[in-house]
Amino acid sequence: MLVDIVMEGSCMYFEGRALNLLLVEIECGDLPLRGFWPYKLALSSSSTNHHHKATSLLILPLLLRTPISFSFNLIDPFLQQSIVEMSSARVSSFTQALLLASLLLFMTVMSCEAHLTPKYYVKSCPQALSTIRAAVRSAVARERRMAASLIRLHFHDCFVQGCDASLLLKDAEGIVSEQNAAQNFRSARGYEVIDSIKSAVEKVCPGVVSCADILAVAARDSSEYVGGPTWKVKLGRRDSTTAANKDLVQRDLPIAFNNLDELITSFARQGLSIKDMVALSGSHTIGQAQCATFRERIYTEPNIDPGFAAMRKRRCPSSPVLGNSTLAPLDLVTPNSFDNNYYKNLLQKKGLLHSDQVLLSSGPIGDMVKYYSKNQAAFFADFAAAMVKMGDIAPLTGSAGEVRRTCSVIN
Ligand code: HEM
C-alpha cells in the first residue's frame, strides 16, 4: 500500500484555537482520505519538532493494522530523516494511546467534510453523465483539439482555489475573471463547450449538476475519446461564488519557463506528488502551444534536438513581436492521440516546452519519464489516479458555494 503524505507545517485556526495541523493525505486502495492531523495532540510539547510529527505518522500502520509504505513529498526533508531515524524506535503504550486519540480526532475532522463520490448524481440526475458524455463527444468530433483544451480547463480550475469552476466566471461586479490572468488569457479555451454542456444538462436536471463537476467529467470523457485512460470521476463539487485574484492565479498555475524545483513546488502546493506531476504532464501528449511559450527554448536552449528546433523555428520567428500565437503540437508524433509519445519525445530532446524537457533530469524524475516511455499502461494507470487526486483539490461541498445555473455567472 502506498501512502502519499503531504506536510504543511502551518498554523491554522480550528474551532477558534490556533492549532498546528498537518495536512495529511492517505490513499488506501481507491479510498483517499484527506484531512488535518493535529500533531500538537500527538505527543508534542514542541510543535515544530519533526521527530514528533514522524512519531504520529509511524503509528498509522499500527492503527490501520496493515503495513504501509510512506512516500514523502520532497518539501519536508527533515521529516523524512526523522522517519528513517525512528523506524527502529519503540513506541510506548502510553504514546500509542495518545496517538490513537489524535487519530480519532483526525478522523472526526475528516468526517466533517462531505466527500465526493462517483454516485453523487445517481438519484438526483441519472442522465447527467450520459448527457455530458454525448456533448463532449460531439465537440471533440467537431474539433479534435478540444479534448486537450477541456482537460486543461479542469487543471486550471483545480490548481487555483480548488476545483470549484471559479475559472469559468467572467468579469462582473466584484469578480475579476481568472480568464484574464497571464496563464489563461488567449490560451485557455473551450469555455463555450462547457456552456453548451451545461445547458444540455440543465434541460434534463435544472439546478442540480455543478459546473465544477462538468469540468471534471468532461476532462475524463475527453481523455477516453482520444484514446487515453478512463477513470471513475468523483462528484459532488459545488461552484464558487468568487473568482481568485490575479496574483493567486499567477502564483498557482505553473508556466512553461519554470525549472524543475518550481514545478515540484507548484504541484506540492496542491498536495500533488512528483509522481503525479510527471504523470499529469503526460497530457501534453495532445494539444497545442503558442510560439511565445516555446520560443526561448527553440532559440536558446542547448538541450534540444537541432532538427526539431529548426522545424519549430520555421513558424515561430525569433522576434518577440512576430508570430507569438502561432501554434505547434505539444507532441510532434501523434498530437491528436493520447499515448506515451510525450515521454518518448523527451528522451529524444524533442519536448516542446522548457517545463516538459526539464522532467528528463538525472535521478528518479528522469527515471519516471523513461519508465512511462516504455510502459504506456503504467502511464495510463498513474495518469488516471493523478487526475482523480487533482479533482479532489479543495472542492466546495455540502452547503458551501452553489450550483450555478450558468457557468460563467454566479446565480
Ligand atoms: C507541469 C506544469 C505545466 C506547465 C508549465 C504547462 C504549460 C502549458 C502551456 C504553456 C501550454 C500551451 C498554452 C498556450 O500556448 O496557449 C499548455 C498546454 C496544455 N496543457 Fe499544460 N502545463 C503544465 C501541466 C499540465 C497539466 C497538469 C495538464 C493536465 C492535467 C496540462 C494540460 C495541457 C493540455 C491538454 C494542453 C493543450 C491545450 C490545448 O491545446 O488547448 N498541462 N500547458
Automatic annotation (TrEMBL):
The record marks R152 as: Transition state stabilizer. PANTHER family: PEROXIDASE 5, PEROXIDASE 72-RELATED. One of its GO terms (molecular function) is metal ion binding. Removal of H(2)O(2), oxidation of toxic reductants, biosynthesis and degradation of lignin, suberization, auxin catabolism, response to environmental stresses such as wounding, pathogen attack and oxidative stress. Substrate binds at P254. Its EC number is 1.11.1.7. Ca(2+) 2 binds at T285, D331, T334, D339. The lineage of its organism: Eukaryota, Viridiplantae, Streptophyta, Embryophyta, Tracheophyta. Keywords: Calcium, Disulfide bond, Glycoprotein, Heme, Hydrogen peroxide, Iron, Metal-binding, Oxidoreductase, Peroxidase, Secreted, Signal. GO terms for biological process: hydrogen peroxide catabolic process; response to oxidative stress. Its main location: secreted. Ca(2+) 1 binds at D157, V160, G162, D164, S166, E178. This is Peroxidase. Belongs to the peroxidase family. Classical plant (class III) peroxidase subfamily. Belongs to the peroxidase family. Ascorbate peroxidase subfamily.
